[in-house]
Amino acid sequence: MFEYMTVQEASKKWGISERRIQKLCSEERVPDLMKVGRMWLIPRNAEKPVDKRRCVGKEK
Length: 60
Hints:
Layout: E1 4-5, H1 7-14, H2 18-26, E2 34-36, E3 39-43
């Protein structure tokens, strides 16, 4: 059984905006999500998804 956190709690834990977390949830980039009505529930042990907007090792 998972313990869940809200978008607001994940925002504080991961240091990113609530809107960004909602976007990650809608793209299903967080594993084992649950949606209840309009509220996303995120497993407490979920890792912050890697930001695909940043390219590591990108050549200039």
